[in-house]
Amino acid sequence: MEKGFGFRFHPTDEELVTHYLSQKALDGDFSAQAIGEVDLNRVEPWDLLGKATFGKNEWDTKYPTGLRTIRATDACCWKATGKDKEIYREKILVGVELQNSM
What we know:
Elements: H1 13-26, H2 48-51, E1 79-80, E2 85-89, E3 92-97, E4 100-101
Antiparallel strand pairs: 1-4, 2-3
């Protein structure tokens, strides 16, 4: 997808959660042209740049409750690192940014 000359996309964490992620959660067909989608559970980190696509994104879960996601790819797995960052909108918690690495 081609964006105009000089196009910049620099939303805050709060804007990403409230304007994009929440819309995607409510409508699985919602697509923001400036944000590509890729299934991080299916792609190795070194292949991410070439694999970003637009379309439906589904989370695979380890347990029927859906509380934990599968964090493994064929070659390795995602590991929680660092401290999670809470995201607020007008003093209301709207999301948590998880720090992960392979």
